[in-house]
Amino acid sequence: MTSEWASKVRGDGVMNPRDIPDLAGVSQRPTHGRLADPSLEHFVHSVIEEEFQGEPPGPQAFDALMAYLRALDTNACARGEVAITLSDATDDVRRAVSAAQRADAATSSALLLAAQDAMGRVVERLPQARFGPQRAALETLSRELGAMRTSTDVRAALETGAAGWSARFDGVVAQIAPRERQTYFNEATLREALSRR
Fold first, then answer.
1. Residue 190 to residues 34, 44, 128, 140, 186: CA-CA distances in angstroms?
2. Contact at 8 Å (CB) between 148 and 154?
3. CA of 41: how far to CAs of 12, 25, 33, 66, 85, in Å?
């Protein structure tokens, strides 16, 4: 970073922004960042702790982050456009909640936040007029994840609440699935809605 508003450690107080590099293929690069750090792990730690002045992530969260970065493959981009379906979007939620049940407390909390974010991406594709009750149910379920996430014992909250939560989530998704063509997951429905604006 080049300005003190972003980093007290790395800022130089001069308005001289730098491009943010693409992360696809980052694990194949010999060096990382403007200081040409040869270690991707060291570079990521320095971005988190110095550039963004964050707390060091726990070992499990850091290992997961590194696995994610190493999995970003430029060849996957060659497939072109990929449709986003209700099934794909709801599977993102399920995967995050499932992973949270197997993680340490800090990582579980982050994964539950990711699940809440993924639920928001489902809700935004449901027209209010047609899916008001399902939107409301998903918003309630998202708040329940938030309560688990901010619980004093996130692990215990997951152990007692995740199974029932998942069943209710699947129930709401089962109400939406037969009408997916009426959602904004359907390109024609989305195009029609945008044309009316």
1. 42, 38, 13, 25, 6
2. yes
3. 24, 15, 12, 7, 34
Tell me which residue of 102, 148, 145 sits closest to 123, measured CA to CA.
145
Domains in the chain: how many in total? 2
90 in the same domain as 67: no
- What are the residues whose beta carbons fall under 8 Å from the beta carbon of 157, sequence distance 6 or more? 147, 148, 151
Domain interval for residue 104: 86-195
The torsion angle over the Cα atoms of residues 102, 98, 56 and 42, rounded to 10 degrees, is: 100
| 33 shares its domain with 112 | no
* Range in 14-28, 86-100, 119-133, 148-162 with the lowest mean pLDDT: 14-28
The 10s digit of each residue's pLDDT in 11-45 is 566 666 667 778 888 888 899 887 888 999 999 98
Q: Hey, CA dihedral for 52, 62, 122, 149, is it positive or negative?
A: negative
Would you give the DSSP letter of residue 49? I
User: For the chain, how long is the longest CA-to-CA vector?
Assistant: 56
